[in-house]
Design goal:
Blueprint (H helix, E strand, L loop, with lengths): L1 E3 L6 H6 L3 H12 L5 H8 L3 H13 L3 E4 L10 E4 L4 E3 L10 E6 L6 E5 L3 E3 L24 E4 L1 E7 L8 E13 L11 E7 L2 E8 L24 E8 L2 E4 L2 E4 L15 E6 L9 E4 L10 E9 L4
Parallel strand pairs: 1-4
Antiparallel strand pairs: 2-3, 5-18, 6-9, 7-8, 8-17, 9-16, 10-13, 10-17, 10-18, 11-12, 11-16, 13-14, 14-15
Helix pairs in contact: 3-4
């Protein structure tokens, strides 16, 4: 998901989406992710030169990206759509000064209970053996940049270093996520649930475990028939409720937790056995997937009211 905080910031994206041809290119790439430039031009009945110009504008805007051709197309380039959602603030919002920003590596979880298929890896190698949950306790897990499991949970203690005598007014967490299928399967729905301090916040249904093209940052040694990339999800808990990518998913609001500078923040990502779609979860760090980030956290705060 791309979050644009002002109209000026989104100018390149708006220009790229202003063409019917470029809209058609995006639709075709979503439906046919292994298509090459010649095939794309033929479907649109335009020249290679004309379509190259459209491709450049979409790439400049960050809507699509070039990927390595591993499907037997020779030297032809392949393209993938990397922007799955667009959130635009029409009225420019001033970012307040009273925000504590931090990030957590995927392997820095404080508690877990996971079931196969499962695994964990650093940017350089697997940690132990796949489908053996014991390796989630291995000391090398602190360097992990990807993990996956079919059901269970991973829990993180979010760093809370806001100034003393302040209360938390909003919590924002973003992470790249997908389902977890045996191998990969782009159509593999999974209900991924989120909890804060053991309170259920809501859920998001991941559409699949994506492996049609390599992740932009996924290392070369990674197995081609394994999880390649996910979707960037932004979870916001504020006074109005809990939201994912700007859409409200529950009435659970930040005031219910009465959080301040001394509060512990336990954030859990879970696939519950009783969910409708038990399709697992994969969490991507900065060296895997399509987004060069770990689990990002922003804590908004303000002075406590006296008395």
């Amino acid at each position: 998901m791309q979050h644009i905080t002002s109209l000026d910031e989104g100018l390149d994206i708006f220009k790229a989406l202003s063409s019917e041809v470029r809209i058609q290119i995006i639709k075709i790439l979503i439906k046919h992710p292994d298509i090459n430039l010649n095939e794309l031009a033929a479907k649109l009945n335009i020249t290679n030169g004309a379509i190259t110009n459209h491709i450049k504008k979409l790439e400049t805007a960050g809507i699509i990206t070039t990927v390595s051709d591993k499907g037997g197309h020779g030297n032809d380039k392949l393209y993938t759509v990397t922007m799955d959602k667009l959130l635009v603030d029409i009225s420019e919002i001033k970012i307040p000064d009273n925000v504590y920003n931090t990030s957590i590596k995927v392997g820095h979880f404080s508690d877990y209970e996971v079931y196969p298929t499962c695994g964990i890896a650093t940017a350089k190698a697997l940690i132990g053996e796949v489908d053996d949950s014991r390796y989630f306790s291995h000391t090398e897990r602190y360097d992990a940049d990807i993990l996956w499991f079919t059901k269970g949970f991973i829990e993180y203690n979010l760093p809370n270093f806001i100034p003393n005598n302040q209360k938390i007014t909003q919590l924002l967490i973003s992470a790249e996520l997908s389902s977890e299928a045996p191998g990969v399967n782009n159509v593999w729905p999974s209900d991924i649930n989120f909890y804060l301090n053991d309170v259920f916040l809501g859920s998001w249904t991941s559409p699949g475990d994506f492996g049609d093209v390599p992740g932009i940052f996924t290392p070369d040694w990674w197995f081609p028939n394994w999880n390649q990339y996910g979707l960037l999800k932004m979870i916001v808990i504020n006074e109005e409720g809990t939201h994912i990518d700007g859409l409200k998913i529950s009435d659970v609001n930040i005031n219910q937790f009465d959080l301040d500078s001394k509060s512990k923040l336990k954030f859990r990502i879970a696939v519950d056995e009783r969910s409708k779609n038990v399709g697992g979860v994969t969490i991507f760090g900065s060296t895997f997937g399509n987004y060069n980030q770990d689990i990002n956290v922003s804590i908004h705060y303000m002075p406590k009211e006296e008395g």
